[in-house]
Each structure stands twice: as structure tokens, then as C-alpha cells.
Amino acid sequence: MKLSISLTLALATAASAFALTPNTRGHVATSSASPAFIHPSHNRALHANHGVDMSKTALRSAASASAMELNAVEDSSATALRSRGGGALGGLDIPLLTYFALWYLGNYYYNITNKLALKATGGAAGFPMTISALQLGIGSLYGLFLWLAPDAREKPSITLDDVIKMLPVAFCYAGAHSASVFSFSAGSVSFGQIVKAAEPAFAAVLSQFVYNKPVSKAKWLCLPIVIGGVILASVNELDFAWSALLSACLANVFAAVRGNENKKLMETEGLKDRLGSVGNQFCITSILGFLLSIPFVLWKEGGKLGQFVESFKTIPALRNNMIASALWFYGYNELSTMTLKKTNAVTQSVANTAKRVIVIVGVALVLGESLDFMKLLGCGIGIGGVFLYSIIDNLVKKD
Q1: Which CA distances in Å does 98 have to 14, 142, 236, 300, 356?
Q2: Residue 125 DSSP class
Q3: What is the pLDDT of residues 133-147, one digit of tens each?
Q4: Lesser CB count within 10 Å: N end or C end of the chain?
Q5: What is the pTM of this model?
Q6: b/e string for 233-265 if b means 16 or more Cβ within 10 A?
């Protein structure tokens, strides 16, 4: 458990320590040296006498200067390549690859520690709403720490009107998280993840009929594949529960609404500048989401909060895993947001698909959940359908 918490802190630190922006020094070196294969002064010397041949001394001087310029270009280019993680690695973007690795690691460990915390208090009959809310609260504390720590992260300069406009996104964010946690408490993590992979189906319906943003016919044709995969995965699910299925579907609805509302929010003039960074936006959303969760915690589990406090004090599996899962959740979500903003649509689709497969299979193996042939087949078909849904418009355009 100490190892898990140590890894958690490492992930959270990485979310603020790494820089995905290109190395400025490397770019400056390249741009400052690249234009000058023959210096302008040499060019003037070549044409000074309108076609008269240069003297041998002038030719040797021009050649020597040009060679020096070329050496400068090679040296600065090599320096820039090394600073970006290139050289023997062929110019790979090491910071971006590190973000991908930490995003996957954080998602994997969040699902494990979250399930262990839920099991420690009786699963769905325990405190799923309280645990989900506290996960948002603990993550928010880390975000606040970054604002208070010297030179860690610049504070946002948002207005009260900005906060009010962010409330719908924060509410959907909290709703999606709480519904997901309840789904994982009522059934297996792998089954919940398979159902959550069908989020594009919910997003398509909402975009088409609520937000008046038409979805292409090609994407509509992909949805039966996604839904069919989920149905196949559910047929022989040993831990199947209607509450788990319905909660995961509700999480998909919240996530789809959040995506559309977030697009509307970011169209607000000047908001990006006032937020300052993706990290600030996520922290504010987490804080608002936590505050909006409190009334629902009091409504659903307020009568047994005393029991939860006692369990938190006396059950290390609850205490340690809940804290760890909160930090894993905050860290991997911030990392995923920052990573996806640096990649194109196809890369995002591949990354999300690979993440689903790794989490579903990896978590099932660690937690001893069922992985029979029908479930794996349904999982493969469903996730494959999601990937196809993500890229189908590009494929159709190419044809």
C-alpha cells in the first residue's frame, strides 16, 4: 500500500512537473541558424562588380565563412534534437510518451484502488456516493496546493460569471464520476468499463436531437456494432447487476452532456485566457463538482456518515485505497486532458481504445474478475466499434 501511495504521489507530481510544450531553446537555436547558408554580406560581395570575377582571396574568405555557417547549423540542430529527446531515439517526443504512460498507469491503478476501497465497506450497500465525493475533494486539495505553492502553477483570474457558466460542466462531471463509482461498486470493473465504452452512442443521440449537431450516417451505422458488443459481453457476466448496467449508462449520459456543454463553455470570450491552463480548468471543475456532490451525499448516505467515519478510522483498506484512488483519479484525468490536446483525432481514438483494453484486461486479472470467451468477444467488438466510430468520417472522406 505504501508503494501504491508513493506511485500516486509520483503521478500527481508528474501532472504538474512535465512540460508538453516544445523546448524553446532547441527551436531558437534551429531558427536562428537555419537561414544562413551564405551570409548576405557574401552575396553582396559576389555581385558587387556586376559579373566581374571575385579575387581568389575573396573566394577563399566566402567559402570559409559558409563552412562556418554550415557547422553552426549542424551543431545547433544536434543540440535542438537532443533537447527534444531525439538523437538515437530518432526524434521521439519523450515528454508526450511519458504522459501517455502515466495516463494509462494512473487509470489502471485508479480502477484497482477504487474497487478495493468500495469492497472494504460492502460495495453498493456501503458508501459509494461518499467515496466518490471525497475522491473529488481530495483531488481538489492537490489542485489548491499547486496554486499556493511557490512557482507551481499560476492562479486563474476568473470572474463570478465564469464560475456560474462552469456549473453545468461541473455538475455533469460529478454526476458521471458518481454514477461510474456506483456501477463499479455494484458489479465488476471490467463490465462497467465495457458499458462505459459505449459512450459514443449516447453522445450521438444527444448531439443529434438535443444540441442540433447532426451525426453522419457512417457514424450511426457504427453504433449497432458498439451496442451489440456490450450485449454480448453481458450475456455470461457472472457479476451482472441491472444497477451496474443502468449506472454505467447514466454515467455515459452525464459524460456526453458534459462534452457538449464544455464545447459551449469554451466559446465564452476570453475564458481560456482567464483560466490560464488546462490544469486550472480541471481543478476548478473538480472543486465545483465536489461542492455540488455534497447535497447528494447527505441525501443518499447522510444517515450513516458516522459509520463511515468510524470505518475510515479503523479499516486501513478503506482509508489508504480511497486516498490513493483520489490522487490517481485527479492525476490521470489531468494528464489525459493535457495529452489529448497535443495529439490529433486519430491518435486520440487509438489511445482511448488501447487504454480501455489495458484497463479491462489488466484490472480483471488483478481483481480476479471473470474473462470468459463471450465477454472478451463482446469487449473486442464493442471497443472495435468505438474505434471505428471515431475514425469513420475520415475514412469515408478519403474514399
Answers
A1: 9, 21, 37, 40, 18
A2: G
A3: 999 999 999 999 999
A4: C
A5: 0.73
A6: bbeebeebbeebbebbbbbbbbbbbbbbbbeeb
